[in-house]
UniProtKB/TrEMBL annotation:
Gene Ontology molecular function terms on file: 5-amino-6-(5-phosphoribosylamino)uracil reductase activity; diaminohydroxyphosphoribosylaminopyrimidine deaminase activity
Protein name, per record: Riboflavin biosynthesis protein RibD
Organism: Flagellimonas algicola
Pfam families: dCMP_cyt_deam_1 (PF00383), RibD_C (PF01872)
Gene that encodes the chain: ribD
Entry EC no(s): 3.5.4.26, 1.1.1.193
Ranges of residues in domain CMP/dCMP-type deaminase: 2-126
CDD domains xrefs: Riboflavin_deaminase-reductase
Pathway listed: Cofactor biosynthesis; riboflavin biosynthesis; 5-amino-6-(D-ribitylamino)uracil from GTP: step 2/4; Cofactor biosynthesis; riboflavin biosynthesis; 5-amino-6-(D-ribitylamino)uracil from GTP: step 3/4
Cofactor note text: Binds 1 zinc ion.
PROSITE patterns given in the database record: CYT_DCMP_DEAMINASES_1 (PS00903), CYT_DCMP_DEAMINASES_2 (PS51747)
Gene3D superfamilies: Cytidine Deaminase, domain 2, Dihydrofolate Reductase, subunit A
Keywords from the named record: Hydrolase, Metal-binding, Multifunctional enzyme, NADP, Oxidoreductase, Riboflavin biosynthesis, Zinc
Length: 350
Protein backbone atom coordinates (compact mmCIF):
# COMPACT_ATOMS: atom_id res chain seq x y z
CA UNK A 1 0.00 0.00 0.00
CA UNK A 2 1.44 3.38 -0.98
CA UNK A 3 0.98 6.62 0.93
CA UNK A 4 -1.87 7.86 -1.29
CA UNK A 5 -3.83 4.64 -0.75
CA UNK A 6 -3.34 4.88 3.01
CA UNK A 7 -4.98 8.28 3.19
CA UNK A 8 -7.69 7.41 0.65
CA UNK A 9 -8.73 4.49 2.87
CA UNK A 10 -9.08 6.96 5.73
CA UNK A 11 -11.25 9.15 3.50
CA UNK A 12 -13.59 6.22 2.87
CA UNK A 13 -13.77 5.45 6.60
CA UNK A 14 -14.82 9.03 7.22
CA UNK A 15 -17.27 9.09 4.33
CA UNK A 16 -19.21 6.15 5.76
CA UNK A 17 -20.18 8.36 8.70
CA UNK A 18 -22.51 10.18 6.31
CA UNK A 19 -24.45 7.05 5.32
CA UNK A 20 -28.16 7.74 5.56
CA UNK A 21 -27.84 11.52 6.01
CA UNK A 22 -26.16 13.00 2.92
CA UNK A 23 -28.47 11.73 0.16
CA UNK A 24 -29.02 12.70 -2.56
CA UNK A 25 -25.47 14.04 -2.16
CA UNK A 26 -22.66 11.46 -2.10
CA UNK A 27 -21.08 10.48 1.23
CA UNK A 28 -17.62 11.92 0.55
CA UNK A 29 -14.66 11.72 2.94
CA UNK A 30 -11.62 14.03 2.93
CA UNK A 31 -8.33 14.48 4.81
CA UNK A 32 -5.68 17.19 4.73
CA UNK A 33 -2.12 15.91 5.16
CA UNK A 34 1.01 17.93 6.04
CA UNK A 35 4.42 16.33 6.47
CA UNK A 36 2.83 12.83 6.52
CA UNK A 37 0.43 13.81 9.29
CA UNK A 38 -3.33 14.35 9.09
CA UNK A 39 -4.01 17.94 10.21
CA UNK A 40 -7.68 18.05 9.24
CA UNK A 41 -10.39 15.62 8.24
CA UNK A 42 -14.09 15.67 7.51
CA UNK A 43 -17.03 14.08 5.74
CA UNK A 44 -20.16 15.36 4.02
CA UNK A 45 -22.64 16.91 6.43
CA UNK A 46 -26.34 16.03 6.29
CA UNK A 47 -27.96 17.22 3.05
CA UNK A 48 -27.74 20.98 2.67
CA UNK A 49 -24.70 21.29 4.94
CA UNK A 50 -20.99 21.70 4.15
CA UNK A 51 -19.22 19.14 1.97
CA UNK A 52 -16.34 16.95 3.10
CA UNK A 53 -13.57 19.22 1.76
CA UNK A 54 -15.02 22.23 3.60
CA UNK A 55 -15.19 20.30 6.87
CA UNK A 56 -11.65 18.93 6.45
CA UNK A 57 -10.14 22.34 5.69
CA UNK A 58 -12.13 23.96 8.53
CA UNK A 59 -10.64 21.40 10.94
CA UNK A 60 -7.07 22.55 10.20
CA UNK A 61 -5.96 24.71 13.13
CA UNK A 62 -2.98 26.39 11.44
CA UNK A 63 -4.29 27.51 8.05
CA UNK A 64 -0.76 28.52 6.94
CA UNK A 65 0.09 24.83 6.71
CA UNK A 66 -2.46 24.42 3.92
CA UNK A 67 0.01 25.98 1.48
CA UNK A 68 2.34 22.99 1.94
CA UNK A 69 -0.34 20.29 2.26
CA UNK A 70 -2.13 17.62 0.25
CA UNK A 71 -5.90 17.21 0.34
CA UNK A 72 -7.35 13.77 -0.30
CA UNK A 73 -10.99 13.28 -1.33
CA UNK A 74 -12.96 10.20 -2.45
CA UNK A 75 -14.82 12.05 -5.23
CA UNK A 76 -13.94 14.97 -7.49
CA UNK A 77 -14.55 18.32 -5.74
CA UNK A 78 -17.61 20.14 -7.07
CA UNK A 79 -17.13 23.18 -9.28
CA UNK A 80 -20.66 24.61 -9.26
CA UNK A 81 -22.94 26.42 -6.84
CA UNK A 82 -25.62 24.20 -5.34
CA UNK A 83 -26.78 24.21 -1.72
CA UNK A 84 -23.17 25.24 -0.92
CA UNK A 85 -20.35 27.05 -2.80
CA UNK A 86 -17.92 25.06 -5.01
CA UNK A 87 -15.38 23.00 -3.07
CA UNK A 88 -12.82 23.42 -5.87
CA UNK A 89 -12.88 27.18 -5.26
CA UNK A 90 -12.18 26.72 -1.55
CA UNK A 91 -9.20 24.43 -2.28
CA UNK A 92 -7.80 27.05 -4.67
CA UNK A 93 -8.42 29.92 -2.20
CA UNK A 94 -6.69 27.88 0.52
CA UNK A 95 -3.66 27.52 -1.79
CA UNK A 96 -3.46 23.76 -1.29
CA UNK A 97 -0.93 22.67 -3.94
CA UNK A 98 -1.65 18.92 -4.15
CA UNK A 99 -5.03 17.27 -4.63
CA UNK A 100 -5.55 13.48 -4.67
CA UNK A 101 -8.95 12.22 -5.88
CA UNK A 102 -10.46 8.72 -5.77
CA UNK A 103 -12.64 9.06 -8.86
CA UNK A 104 -14.14 11.60 -11.22
CA UNK A 105 -17.69 12.73 -10.47
CA UNK A 106 -20.11 11.67 -13.28
CA UNK A 107 -22.64 14.36 -12.32
CA UNK A 108 -23.31 16.47 -15.41
CA UNK A 109 -22.56 19.65 -13.45
CA UNK A 110 -19.11 18.35 -12.46
CA UNK A 111 -17.80 15.59 -14.80
CA UNK A 112 -14.18 16.74 -14.83
CA UNK A 113 -14.89 20.47 -14.46
CA UNK A 114 -13.66 20.46 -10.86
CA UNK A 115 -10.43 18.72 -11.84
CA UNK A 116 -9.88 21.14 -14.72
CA UNK A 117 -10.53 24.15 -12.50
CA UNK A 118 -7.96 22.93 -9.97
CA UNK A 119 -5.34 22.26 -12.64
CA UNK A 120 -5.97 25.60 -14.32
CA UNK A 121 -5.31 27.27 -10.96
CA UNK A 122 -1.95 25.51 -10.68
CA UNK A 123 -2.85 22.60 -8.40
CA UNK A 124 -1.18 19.25 -9.02
CA UNK A 125 -4.06 16.80 -9.28
CA UNK A 126 -3.87 12.98 -9.09
CA UNK A 127 -7.02 11.05 -10.03
CA UNK A 128 -7.86 7.34 -9.68
CA UNK A 129 -6.35 6.36 -6.34
CA UNK A 130 -8.23 3.25 -5.13
CA UNK A 131 -10.79 3.98 -7.83
CA UNK A 132 -12.47 0.55 -7.62
CA UNK A 133 -12.87 0.85 -3.86
CA UNK A 134 -14.15 4.42 -4.19
CA UNK A 135 -16.71 3.26 -6.76
CA UNK A 136 -17.97 0.66 -4.29
CA UNK A 137 -18.06 3.30 -1.55
CA UNK A 138 -20.10 5.66 -3.77
CA UNK A 139 -22.31 2.93 -5.31
CA UNK A 140 -25.58 4.65 -4.42
CA UNK A 141 -24.59 8.00 -5.89
CA UNK A 142 -22.98 6.45 -8.97
CA UNK A 143 -26.00 4.24 -9.73
CA UNK A 144 -28.26 7.28 -9.50
CA UNK A 145 -26.01 9.33 -11.81
CA UNK A 146 -25.01 6.66 -14.33
CA UNK A 147 -28.13 4.46 -14.47
CA UNK A 148 -30.67 7.17 -13.69
CA UNK A 149 -32.27 5.11 -10.96
CA UNK A 150 -31.83 4.40 -7.24
CA UNK A 151 -29.41 1.79 -5.93
CA UNK A 152 -31.83 -1.07 -5.18
CA UNK A 153 -31.49 -3.46 -2.25
CA UNK A 154 -33.96 -6.35 -2.01
CA UNK A 155 -34.55 -7.76 1.45
CA UNK A 156 -36.62 -10.63 2.74
CA UNK A 157 -36.69 -13.37 5.35
CA UNK A 158 -37.57 -16.96 4.52
CA UNK A 159 -38.10 -20.12 6.53
CA UNK A 160 -36.03 -23.29 6.24
CA UNK A 161 -38.58 -24.55 3.70
CA UNK A 162 -38.37 -21.25 1.71
CA UNK A 163 -41.66 -19.65 2.69
CA UNK A 164 -41.80 -15.89 3.16
CA UNK A 165 -45.22 -15.87 4.84
CA UNK A 166 -47.76 -18.44 6.12
CA UNK A 167 -50.93 -19.29 4.23
CA UNK A 168 -54.13 -17.30 4.73
CA UNK A 169 -55.80 -19.87 6.99
CA UNK A 170 -52.96 -19.60 9.50
CA UNK A 171 -53.06 -15.79 9.24
CA UNK A 172 -56.81 -15.77 9.94
CA UNK A 173 -56.20 -17.73 13.15
CA UNK A 174 -53.46 -15.29 14.19
CA UNK A 175 -53.54 -11.93 12.37
CA UNK A 176 -50.35 -10.61 13.98
CA UNK A 177 -47.17 -10.65 11.82
CA UNK A 178 -45.30 -13.96 11.78
CA UNK A 179 -41.65 -13.29 12.59
CA UNK A 180 -39.21 -15.56 10.80
CA UNK A 181 -36.02 -13.98 12.13
CA UNK A 182 -34.70 -13.31 15.61
CA UNK A 183 -34.39 -10.01 17.51
CA UNK A 184 -30.84 -9.34 16.34
CA UNK A 185 -31.72 -9.73 12.68
CA UNK A 186 -34.73 -7.46 13.13
CA UNK A 187 -32.51 -4.79 14.68
CA UNK A 188 -30.09 -5.08 11.74
CA UNK A 189 -32.99 -4.41 9.36
CA UNK A 190 -33.77 -1.20 11.26
CA UNK A 191 -30.13 -0.18 10.88
CA UNK A 192 -30.44 -0.79 7.13
CA UNK A 193 -33.59 1.34 7.02
CA UNK A 194 -31.67 4.23 8.58
CA UNK A 195 -29.01 3.93 5.86
CA UNK A 196 -31.24 4.11 2.79
CA UNK A 197 -33.25 7.00 1.44
CA UNK A 198 -36.50 5.10 0.80
CA UNK A 199 -38.28 1.83 1.55
CA UNK A 200 -40.90 0.10 -0.62
CA UNK A 201 -43.62 -2.48 -0.03
CA UNK A 202 -46.61 -3.78 -1.94
CA UNK A 203 -50.30 -3.54 -1.06
CA UNK A 204 -50.69 -7.06 0.31
CA UNK A 205 -47.80 -6.67 2.75
CA UNK A 206 -49.46 -3.56 4.16
CA UNK A 207 -52.89 -5.22 4.39
CA UNK A 208 -51.45 -8.34 6.04
CA UNK A 209 -48.99 -6.75 8.49
CA UNK A 210 -49.91 -3.06 8.83
CA UNK A 211 -46.19 -2.17 9.06
CA UNK A 212 -44.84 1.23 10.17
CA UNK A 213 -41.78 1.02 7.89
CA UNK A 214 -39.83 3.39 10.16
CA UNK A 215 -36.67 3.15 12.26
CA UNK A 216 -37.36 2.04 15.83
CA UNK A 217 -34.62 -0.17 17.29
CA UNK A 218 -31.78 1.93 15.86
CA UNK A 219 -30.76 5.58 15.86
CA UNK A 220 -31.30 7.33 12.55
CA UNK A 221 -33.72 8.94 10.15
CA UNK A 222 -36.67 6.91 8.89
CA UNK A 223 -36.68 6.37 5.12
CA UNK A 224 -39.28 7.80 2.78
CA UNK A 225 -42.10 5.25 2.51
CA UNK A 226 -42.98 4.11 -1.02
CA UNK A 227 -46.24 2.14 -1.09
CA UNK A 228 -47.83 0.37 -4.04
CA UNK A 229 -51.63 0.59 -3.93
CA UNK A 230 -53.14 0.23 -7.39
CA UNK A 231 -56.79 0.80 -6.43
CA UNK A 232 -56.38 2.51 -3.03
CA UNK A 233 -57.32 -0.53 -0.96
CA UNK A 234 -55.29 0.45 2.11
CA UNK A 235 -57.53 1.85 4.88
CA UNK A 236 -56.74 5.43 5.91
CA UNK A 237 -56.06 4.45 9.55
CA UNK A 238 -53.16 2.14 8.62
CA UNK A 239 -49.68 3.15 9.79
CA UNK A 240 -48.24 3.87 6.33
CA UNK A 241 -50.81 6.66 5.86
CA UNK A 242 -50.37 8.33 9.27
CA UNK A 243 -48.15 11.21 7.97
CA UNK A 244 -45.47 10.44 10.56
CA UNK A 245 -42.97 9.85 7.74
CA UNK A 246 -42.83 11.27 4.20
CA UNK A 247 -44.83 8.84 2.05
CA UNK A 248 -45.26 8.42 -1.71
CA UNK A 249 -48.18 6.24 -2.78
CA UNK A 250 -48.04 4.69 -6.24
CA UNK A 251 -51.49 4.07 -7.70
CA UNK A 252 -53.58 3.78 -10.85
CA UNK A 253 -56.45 5.73 -9.26
CA UNK A 254 -56.71 9.11 -10.99
CA UNK A 255 -59.56 10.51 -8.89
CA UNK A 256 -57.70 12.95 -6.63
CA UNK A 257 -60.79 13.35 -4.41
CA UNK A 258 -59.80 9.97 -2.95
CA UNK A 259 -56.32 11.19 -2.04
CA UNK A 260 -55.37 11.86 1.58
CA UNK A 261 -53.75 15.08 2.76
CA UNK A 262 -50.03 14.81 3.46
CA UNK A 263 -49.46 11.87 1.10
CA UNK A 264 -47.73 12.30 -2.26
CA UNK A 265 -49.52 10.38 -5.02
CA UNK A 266 -47.89 9.23 -8.26
CA UNK A 267 -49.65 7.41 -11.10
CA UNK A 268 -48.40 4.11 -12.51
CA UNK A 269 -49.60 2.12 -15.51
CA UNK A 270 -49.96 -1.33 -13.96
CA UNK A 271 -50.43 -2.92 -17.41
CA UNK A 272 -46.76 -2.20 -18.15
CA UNK A 273 -43.53 -3.22 -16.34
CA UNK A 274 -43.88 -1.66 -12.91
CA UNK A 275 -40.34 -1.70 -11.52
CA UNK A 276 -38.98 0.41 -14.37
CA UNK A 277 -41.74 3.00 -13.84
CA UNK A 278 -40.96 3.07 -10.12
CA UNK A 279 -37.28 3.69 -10.83
CA UNK A 280 -38.14 6.58 -13.14
CA UNK A 281 -40.45 8.14 -10.57
CA UNK A 282 -37.93 7.81 -7.74
CA UNK A 283 -35.24 9.34 -9.92
CA UNK A 284 -37.60 12.30 -10.44
CA UNK A 285 -37.87 12.60 -6.65
CA UNK A 286 -34.03 12.52 -6.32
CA UNK A 287 -34.14 9.24 -4.37
CA UNK A 288 -30.76 7.56 -4.77
CA UNK A 289 -31.27 4.35 -2.77
CA UNK A 290 -34.23 2.05 -2.18
CA UNK A 291 -34.77 -0.85 0.21
CA UNK A 292 -37.47 -3.18 -1.15
CA UNK A 293 -39.01 -5.19 1.70
CA UNK A 294 -41.69 -7.15 -0.08
CA UNK A 295 -43.78 -9.18 -0.47
CA UNK A 296 -42.88 -11.88 -2.94
CA UNK A 297 -44.84 -10.44 -5.87
CA UNK A 298 -43.24 -7.01 -5.47
CA UNK A 299 -39.74 -8.43 -4.99
CA UNK A 300 -40.12 -10.76 -7.97
CA UNK A 301 -41.16 -7.82 -10.15
CA UNK A 302 -37.80 -6.11 -9.53
CA UNK A 303 -35.94 -9.40 -10.04
CA UNK A 304 -37.72 -10.22 -13.29
CA UNK A 305 -37.06 -6.73 -14.69
CA UNK A 306 -33.40 -6.99 -13.69
CA UNK A 307 -33.65 -3.88 -11.53
CA UNK A 308 -31.74 -4.74 -8.39
CA UNK A 309 -28.18 -4.39 -7.11
CA UNK A 310 -28.11 -6.36 -3.86
CA UNK A 311 -30.34 -8.97 -2.26
CA UNK A 312 -30.11 -9.45 1.50
CA UNK A 313 -31.79 -12.71 2.44
CA UNK A 314 -32.33 -14.03 5.95
CA UNK A 315 -33.03 -17.70 6.52
CA UNK A 316 -34.66 -18.34 9.89
CA UNK A 317 -34.78 -21.52 11.92
CA UNK A 318 -38.52 -22.17 11.60
CA UNK A 319 -40.68 -23.93 9.01
CA UNK A 320 -44.18 -23.05 7.76
CA UNK A 321 -44.88 -26.23 5.70
CA UNK A 322 -47.15 -24.15 3.45
CA UNK A 323 -47.70 -20.52 2.55
CA UNK A 324 -46.22 -17.94 0.18
CA UNK A 325 -42.95 -19.03 -1.37
CA UNK A 326 -39.92 -16.73 -1.34
CA UNK A 327 -38.82 -15.05 -4.59
CA UNK A 328 -36.64 -16.87 -7.11
CA UNK A 329 -33.31 -15.15 -7.57
CA UNK A 330 -29.77 -15.85 -8.71
CA UNK A 331 -26.71 -13.72 -8.19
CA UNK A 332 -23.17 -13.72 -6.89
CA UNK A 333 -22.85 -14.53 -3.19
CA UNK A 334 -20.62 -11.82 -1.72
CA UNK A 335 -21.25 -12.32 2.01
CA UNK A 336 -22.70 -14.89 4.40
CA UNK A 337 -22.88 -14.85 8.19
CA UNK A 338 -24.70 -16.43 11.10
CA UNK A 339 -26.79 -14.17 13.31
CA UNK A 340 -27.44 -16.55 16.21
CA UNK A 341 -30.17 -18.83 14.79
CA UNK A 342 -30.47 -17.00 11.45
CA UNK A 343 -28.26 -17.03 8.35
CA UNK A 344 -27.82 -13.85 6.33
CA UNK A 345 -26.77 -14.14 2.68
CA UNK A 346 -26.00 -11.13 0.51
CA UNK A 347 -26.15 -11.53 -3.25
CA UNK A 348 -24.85 -9.10 -5.86
CA UNK A 349 -26.54 -8.77 -9.23
CA UNK A 350 -24.24 -10.26 -11.86
Amino acid sequence: MNIHEKYMLRCMELGKKGLGTTAPNPMVGSVVVHDDKIIGEGYTSPYGGPHAEVNAISAVLNKELLKQSTIYVTLEPCSHFGKTPPCADLIIESEIPLVVIGLQDPHDKVAGAGINKLRDAGCQVTVGVLERECREHHKRFLTFQEKRRPYIILKWAETQDRFIAPDKARRNDSPEPFWITNTYSKQLVHQWRSEEQAILVGTQTVLDDNPKLNVRTWEGKSPIRIVLDQSLKIPSHFHVLDNSVDTILLTAEQDSSKYLDGITYELLDFTKPVANQICNLLHKHSISSLLVEGGTRTLQTFIDEGLWDEARIFKGASKFDSGILAPEISGKLIHSEKIISDTLSILQHD
